[in-house]
Design brief:
Elements: H1 2-28, H2 33-42, H3 45-53, H4 55-90, H5 94-110, H6 122-153, H7 160-195
């Protein structure tokens, strides 16, 4: 639904830009109007230079054209955002990183604690490793939650595939959140043991 509205606004903006460029060329009185019109359509910055040179005669057309360009921005901005998000997710984004982080967390728990720095007790080493892991998990949770909020705001509820995909991601987030809670609790336990 949102995509359709943005596309309609972009089409309206495109028509306004074409009409504004036509008025701009007509009112400024160029000797080669067709060539100037085509160049205005291809290079939007020429609108400003023409406006500066012929302000009194061409201001209405220039402002209509610039308003049309601005009406196209939301549609193309939304498309660009979707492409960037899809590219990030397909190139090992959220799901792959989450699985790696969970595998690392399990490996950390399986490893026996050894002293890291010279003279550092094994418990303190394990505590610092666990703190690092929990900080990474919490940062991942915050980022993931922001991504879900952004997607929820622009989610087309009539698109069943998009809703299923969003719900699957939300369920994965909930599972990851539970694991992060467990790791946070383990960190609290390690801290209390280390203080003794």
């Amino acid at each position: 639904m949102l995509e359709t509205i943005l596309a309609a606004i972009a089409i309206l903006g495109g028509l306004a830009t074409l009409h504004g460029n036509y008025r701009l060329v007509r009112d400024s009185g160029h000797e080669k109007p067709v060539r100037r019109y085509i160049s205005l359509c291809l290079v939007p910055m020429l609108i400003l230079t023409t406006l500066i040179r012929h302000y009194r005669r061409a201001r209405k057309g220039a402002f209509i054209s610039m308003a049309g360009l601005w009406l196209m921005v939301p549609f193309f901005g939304n498309r660009l955002w979707e492409k960037q998000t899809a590219a990030m997710e397909s190139s090992g984004g959220r799901k792959h990183d989450t699985e790696e982080m969970l595998a690392d967390a399990d490996d950390e728990d399986a490893k026996p604690a050894r002293g890291g720095k010279k003279g550092e007790p094994p418990q303190l080493q394990k505590l610092s490793e666990k703190e690092k892991l929990v900080n990474q998990l919490n940062a991942r949770l915050v980022w993931w939650h922001q991504q879900l909020d952004g997607r929820r705001a622009s989610l087309d509820r009539n698109n069943a595939h998009a809703v299923r995909e969003f719900n699957a991601d939300a369920a994965a987030y909930a599972g990851f959140h539970e694991i992060a809670k467990e790791k946070n609790q383990e960190l609290l336990t390690l801290r209390s043991v280390a203080k003794r």
